[in-house]
Design brief:
single chain, 244 residues, mainly alpha, two-stranded antiparallel sheet, two-stranded antiparallel ribbon
């Protein structure tokens, strides 16, 4: 005799578990899968999102040829976030089925949402379901929790490292990505000054020593390129070749 006859087959916890183990999104994280194979599949998923999601987005901010580490870290963060969201979805699916297996009474719908019922499991069904939850669902949930915790730690470390690199690459003018471009010591009504001893641009006309010192302080870059406002007034395109 079917002890679960009242419950539609697709709403029985044991059948929900069977469907979960066959679904491509949920089946590859099962506890019975060897750890090595699990890590390989996780790496493949990460690599897919890195190549087709993280890298194209990171390329909009970081030039791989100039800042490869920032590029890789940024793409890795974006890819890890996508994978983490997918893992959370998988975890919720397994957790839902696990809760229904462990519960002594499960709600079900006979024909639709408007005629919901509650099925109290007979002792035989309850014992079977709880064994399945204990030996199949709980180990899988434990693996998923470990994965999510590990990904969270990696995301945190990667984000801190990326922020540190961005901060290190930000000049005194608050602009990231100009590398070692000199930053003006002061901007006056007459122009931009870089040297420590120069007080006025007119001093450079009569003092070759100060002029040479000012040229060295500018590092071969037009003075206005070091100030965002003057750079914008000049059009900016003439300074791009000096950006590093």
């Amino acid at each position: 005799m079917d002890l679960e006859m009242a419950v539609p087959e697709d709403q029985r916890p044991v059948n929900e578990l069977a469907a979960l183990k066959q679904a491509w999104l949920y089946s590859w994280v099962r506890a019975v899968l060897p750890l090595g194979d699990y890590v390989k599949r996780l790496a493949l998923v990460f690599g897919f999102f890195f190549a087709f999601v993280g890298a194209p987005i990171a390329d909009q901010t970081f030039d791989f040829s100039k800042t490869p580490l920032e590029f890789v870290l940024s793409a890795g963060i974006g890819s890890s976030l996508v994978v983490a969201i997918a893992m959370v979805r998988i975890y919720l699916g397994w957790s839902y089925v696990g809760d229904r297996l462990l519960s002594a009474a499960v709600p079900y719908e006979e024909t639709g949402w408007y005629d919901g019922q509650t099925f109290v499991k007979p002792p035989e069904v309850l014992t079977r379901d709880r064994l399945l939850a204990t030996y199949e669902v709980r180990p899988t949930l434990a693996k998923l929790r470990s994965t999510l915790l590990g990904m969270g730690g990696i995301l945190l470390v990667t984000a801190l490292l990326l922020l540190g690199l961005i901060k290190a690459g930000t000049d005194a003018d608050g602009v990231y990505g100009r590398g070692s471009m000199p930053v003006p010591r002061q901007v006056t009504a007459d122009g931009v000054l870089y040297g420590k001893r120069v007080k006025d641009l007119r001093e450079l006309a009569d003092n070759d020593e100060l002029a040479a010192e000012e040229a060295a302080a500018q590092g071969g870059v037009p003075g206005y390129c070091g100030d965002r406002l003057l750079r914008a007034y000049a059009g900016g395109q003439y300074c791009s070749k000096f950006d590093k």
